[in-house]
From TrEMBL:
Residues making up the signal peptide according to the UniProt record: 1-18
Residue ranges constituting the Ig-like domain according to the UniProt record: 23-128
Any one annotated GO CC term: T cell receptor complex
Coiled-coil stretches: none
The entry's keywords: Adaptive immunity, Immunity, Immunoglobulin domain, Receptor, Signal, T cell receptor
Record keyword Signal present: yes
Gene3D superfamilies xref list: Immunoglobulins
One Pfam entry name: V-set
Single biological process term from Gene Ontology: adaptive immune response
Protein name: Ig-like domain-containing protein
PANTHER family: T CELL RECEPTOR ALPHA VARIABLE 16, T-CELL RECEPTOR ALPHA CHAIN V REGION
Organism of provenance: Cirrhinus mrigala (Mrigala)
Length: 145
């Protein structure tokens, strides 16, 4: 039996101070064991972040890219995660997960400064009601069918 992962980008585009970040597609598909790339377009940012959040937990830092991709700070979450900024055909930031597995099922956030607060109650409200916030957040949810 082949397991497939479905990545749902049920995100909202958020704009403030002239900056905007949003996912590039509404969903992605990946087979277990293969790589999957999550992407977000952004208008302008000095610092970009990726976070992962499991149900009932605070967002977990994955990677920070700053100063025009000259400085990358990666967490010790998982060595299968890599991030890249591309600026040649518009600005976008990618998070690639190599060898996708069931444990990768979570919400994934691409964000720019200012970013998440760690308050899961507030973030949950943002995600379910698409309310305005000072955070610039898009979310991705990975599940398997």
């Amino acid at each position: 039996m082949i397991l497939h992962s479905v990545i749902l980008l049920s995100a909202f585009a958020y704009a403030a101070y002239g900056n905007e970040i949003k996912p590039t597609k509404s969903e992605e598909f990946a087979d277990e064991g293969f790589s999957v790339k999550l992407s977000c377009n952004y208008s302008s940012a000095d610092t970009l972040h990726w976070y992962r959040q499991y149900p009932g937990s605070a967002p977990e830092f994955i990677v920070l890219i700053s100063d025009g991709a000259k400085q990358v700070q990666v967490s010790n979450v998982d060595s299968r995660f890599t991030a890249k900024v591309t600026k040649n055909k518009g600005n976008h930031v990618d998070l690639e997960i190599s060898s996708a597995s069931i444990s990768d099922s979570a919400l994934y956030y691409c964000a720019m400064e200012p970013t998440v607060t760690g308050n899961t109650r507030t973030q949950h409200k943002i995600l379910t009601h698409n309310t305005a916030s000072t955070s610039h957040i898009s979310n991705l949810h990975i599940c398997y069918r």
